[in-house]
Design a protein that fits this description.
homodimer; mainly alpha; Annexin V, domain 1; 20 helices; 74% helix; phosphatidylserine binding (chains A, B)
Chain lengths: 314, 314
């Protein structure tokens, strides 16, 4: 379930005018910006952007970028983009950041449904005049390239069928590969990038039944290079993306100085989807509320905005 | 331009009833079947199939399969399928036939536009409850797998932009790889499977300018293993698919006993698209008309049907 508190029966024109007013004078009225945009769903935000363009012949997103700054700006900018376009931007930034951020590419490609990923590939064409796989493969080599290109190019079947025998065979292949460490990465890549998620979860369950440990925990024991880290991310996102996001939030908050990029990414992309479930997982795992931790670790307008997306009442 | 002579102002219901009549008694009236289906475009054929199902509660394609046989049946069956579904079937058959037919997979993936290939991937899900890449990768290994999976998973950008510097760099990469024979296949695969077709043609042109020979001719001199053969097919299909098809037809006809599968595939899949251009190329290259060659090399109802698709007047 979502966390944001959407105000219904709003008018895009009135919202656009109120935002224009908030931009007046020296320094924007950030409180007003948050009060409006933090309580509108994706459809409403698109309508506001359209109305603003029509009324003032100016792109609202560009104006926001010039009015606000820092983490607050980055979070609002991402919030304002259409979800597929936002993911295209996140992937592009991650590719340009190199191996430090390849987990973001694997995360997006593995969490999204087949049609959602396709929409991101289309958005990437429109925005960058290139394909995702073109940029990913130009920046990587070897098995890491094969894995990342396979993940972003996948068009997975989404039926419920499970082939139990195949799950057994492929759990064994994964086991052999992980055990040897220098194992048959190509087969692991094939399995991870082509099988349906339903089938993969069956394979991961089979692995756990046989070896008494989940494949992702097993990999964690050995994680060393970028390939294995990326593999680990993909497996966790396919297996249980909410648990994965809980951990991203935990790491972002625990980190010295807080990892605002990770924090914003999860909150902005999941606020309208399943952030409430992720918040509950966070509380179960850490015995503290996510909002309280965010309150402690962030400040200013960024803090207010993130807490609004987390569903905190004003 | 297309070759088939489409009769307009036909009625799907009348066509369905005429086909039903053609199936009556012992042995179908193949002449009637050809006279109807050989002169209907893809939309009309879909309407006939629908009307037939509604009138007689029977699938027209299944009925056709039971009424006719051999090469004629296979060609009519493929003709009756929706183009994306037909390509899904062709790919599936090719995968099951193994290395003998991988060029068909490469051909379809490389000739189709981005959206057409996507439609085939969807049709494959619907028909086989798996993804193309899942089946391709389960039957192949190593560089051949990487190349084929890359081709069928590609979602190429289709803009007109050309990066001349990139074309130069990547022409060199391809040259080095081809020269060494045991060269850097991974880079060649990356280039072939991710760049836009416009960019790739610029790269191939650059190669020819520098080395006085086209990359596909150069590869042909050395062609040995399945990987290089598949690479060769992909390059030819991207560079000039009409010329490629002309050669498939030439080889199919020259072959002892004729390669009906190749002949039918090209004629059925291109009859509504650009088979007239391919016919002209055939005449230019061979100084004989394609129809005359087909007449000599085939027989019976199969021959009549293929010649009808080639635009021969009854």
């Amino acid at each position: 379930m979502a966390t944001i508190v959407v105000h219904s029966q709003t008018s895009p024109v009135q919202d656009a005018e109120a935002l224009r007013l908030a931009f007046k004078g020296w320094g924007a009225d950030n409180k007003a910006i948050i009060a409006i945009l933090g309580h509108r769903n994706v459809h409403q935000r698109q309508q506001i952007r359209k109305a603003y363009e029509e009324l003032f012949e100016e792109d609202l997103i560009k104006r926001l970028e010039s009015e606000i700054s820092g983490d607050f700006e980055r979070a609002v900018y991402r919030w304002m983009l259409d979800p597929a376009d936002r993911d295209a931007v996140l992937i592009n930034v991650a590719i340009r950041n190199g191996n430090k951020d390849y987990h973001v590419v694997a995360e997006i490609a593995s969490v999204l449904s087949t049609e959602e990923l396709l929409a991101v590939r289309r958005a990437y064409h429109n925005r960058y005049k290139r394909s995702i796989e073109e940029d990913v493969s130009a920046h990587t080599t070897g098995h890491l390239r094969q894995l990342l290109v396979g993940l972003v190019s996948s068009f997975r079947y989404e039926g419920d069928e499970i082939n139990a025998k195949l799950a057994q065979t492929e759990a064994n292949i994964i086991h052999e590969s992980v055990k040897e460490k220098k194992g048959n990465n190509e087969e692991v890549i094939r399995i991870l990038t082509t099988r349906s998620k339903t089938q993969l979860v069956a394979t991961f369950n089979r692995y756990r039944d046989e070896h008494g440990i989940s494949i992702s925990k097993k990999l964690l024991d050995q994680t060393s290079d970028d390939f294995q880290k990326t593999l680990h991310t993909a497996i966790r996102c396919i297996n249980d993306h909410k648990k994965y996001y809980e951990k991203v939030l935990r790491n972002a908050i625990k980190k010295f100085g807080t990892d605002e990029d990770g924090l914003s990414r999860v909150i902005v992309t999941r606020a309208e989807k399943d952030l409430r479930d992720i918040k509950e997982l966070y509380y179960k795992r850490n015995s503290v509320h996510l909002e309280d931790e965010v309150s402690k670790e962030t400040s200013g307008d960024y803090k207010k905005f993130i807490l609004t997306l987390l569903g905190k009442h004003d």
